[in-house]
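name: query_chain
kind: protein
chains: 1
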Amino acid sequence: MDTINNTNFNFPDQKSIYKGKVREVYNIQDELLVMVATDRLSAFDVILPRQIPFKGQILNQIAAKMMEATVDIVPNWILATPDPNVAVGHLCEPFKVEMVIRGYLSGHAAREYKLGKRLLCGVEMPEGMKENDKFPTPIITPSTKADNGEHDEDISREAIISKDIVSESDYEILENYTRSLFQRGTEIAKERGLILVDTKYEFGKTKDGKIVLIDEIHTPDSSRYFYMDGYQERQDRGEAQKQLSKEFVRQWLIANGFQGKDGQEVPEMVDEKIIEISERYIELYENITGEKFIKSDTSNIMQRIEHNVNHFLNSFYKN
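structure:
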């Protein structure tokens, strides 16, 4: 199966390309962004050496569905998804923070808690919690939006405002949007028999100054889900939760001696592991959306994307 690692398209009126950890973004006339979801896999802010079949399609389609399901409460950047791996939308100036919101003590928060820390991004975490317990109310723990090759870093609301990374008035809007989105995401997850544990949102400003949701939303790369069935029983017995997220990749890496730290090497990812990860992503898609995943034709994946995007751009500018 063909996968997408790097792209190098030259679309009509293209101004620039930005290559993120897993997405590549093409600027068209300083007006539109063409976002290509590659099959790259990132963990601990490191791009792993092998790609995962259908991962980009899965992330792109979940994000598009979730954007559509939340557009009534928060405006977003998307205009169309002309290809299974592509979203096209308005060019925005992104805020240099990721709005992380946590409903449960899991992942990074749990690791910090085990180290004895009770303050995360200036937010107090209650005493007496154990891993995967629910917070009394969801907490917002922002992180800086790192450039390529750098690690995202925890940052407090106060530091974001005092350093003028985001103005106080804009930050209040980001916080309110984050809580509204998380509430909607929690409701959607519940309908699927899932718990939305934590997630992150990214926002930007359009040319006319409107704050909109950008990037991805409620995907397994940006979110953590637990199965609702048996959650409390597992907590009571002190067992690990059955979850749907990229955490299974992180745990495999940790078990094989890799957490993205200096001097550590990524363990070998054999074909069987790649297929297993791909199948887990498909499982994630079907559970999160409640729909059967339909694999796209990957025999000429680059030509397919180029054709579909060019067709959309031609139609868009004709109209």
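note: The first strand starts at residue 14 and ends at 19.
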